[in-house]
Amino acid sequence: MATTTVEIPTRDGNTLAAYLELPDTAPTSWAVFAHCFACSAKSPAATRISRRLAQHGFGVLRFDFAGLGGSEGDFKDTTFHTNRTNLQDAISWLGKNHGQPELLIGHSLGGAAALATAGSVEGLKAVVSIAAPYEPGHVTKLFADDIQTIRDNGESDVKIGGKTVTISQDFLDDICGTPQKQRIENLPVPVLVMHSPIDELVDIHNAQGIYRAAPMPKSFIALDDADHLLTKRGHAAYAADVIATWASRYIEIPEDEDNEIDHPTDGVTAIMEDASDFATTIATSTHSFILDEPTSVPGAKDLGPNPFDMMLAGLAGCTSMTMRMYARRKGFELGDTRVNVTVDTKPGNTTFTRTITFADHLDDAQREKLLTIADKCPVHKAMEAHVEIDTIAD
């Protein structure tokens, strides 16, 4: 699996920080994950559920709402409406650059946003709410003591989940005036409601309200002893496994045998299917991953690193591993090491520049020896040696 960092432009002029979780083979379906209130796309639930779904073959986009995480914008300028437009812009970006999402997932207030947005997403097959409030205005209970100050001053700093954010009067007015019940009643796709009976922030009655309002087909799964944020790793994994199984009833996902990879006993095999454009599955004897070209190349979807970057990665990775082996053999701690490889290509000559950043505790003698050892890594030796490539037709 691979995580790719991307940037999503929005209609408001802000750029959203986002992360694309990709399976080892071409995604069988695409999904978007909306994170919890005042959290980020790096929250445990967002990260773990997205990555677990990637293990099930989904390509999953998770992003930071404006004013949070790595996204541009000021949180105090956001409302439930802007959350919805951020989600719509993320969905649009995914559809234009990779594939139209068939699954929409939201956690907490992100779940409310997903339910409110699902009716307008072309090609959507299913929506999932996790620990979501029935009415978005429920989140005001998190800062109930500050509401009067917000109304008096137009805004106020409040503490939510250990972090301080600014809540505006516009946010209050918008979130308390959202016609959520009608949106849920008119959902055009199947809905899965997931909630913990012991949720300490958004109680289980919210799940009951969502389930009652939603039309058939609909399903409910209790997350048993999970907390609101699904902080325990096992809870997120369980939720993702259930989502993948449930969604398979509504999303046309190829059977596992259709995606089996023929791993070679020797060398590396590149498998390019006609329908995948440039995306190429690379299979070794024990692993598989995807290479692709950037979206600047017509037809490419940037599902993985490009072949030249992978060559640089081989040199960088081999260098760090060779130095680690040497340090262990000599009995000293290498510590954290960073190897950066760049390339300058000119007619008839290619120069690779390798920059190694060592841990502070290493002395000058150790660093000098490690630089010498770096030149002995097998990939380095192969790249410097006389190389011949024989190509034959099978």
From TrEMBL:
What is the protein name for this chain? AB hydrolase-1 domain-containing protein
> Which residues belong to any copy of the AB hydrolase-1 domain?
32-155
Which species does the entry assign this protein to? Answer: Corynebacterium aquilae DSM 44791
Question: Where does the record place a coiled coil?
Answer: none
User: Which Pfam family, any one of them, does this sequence belong to?
Assistant: Abhydrolase_6
Extract the GO molecular function terms from the UniProt entry: catalytic activity
Gene3D superfamilies, per database record:
3.30.300.20, alpha/beta hydrolase (3.40.50.1820)
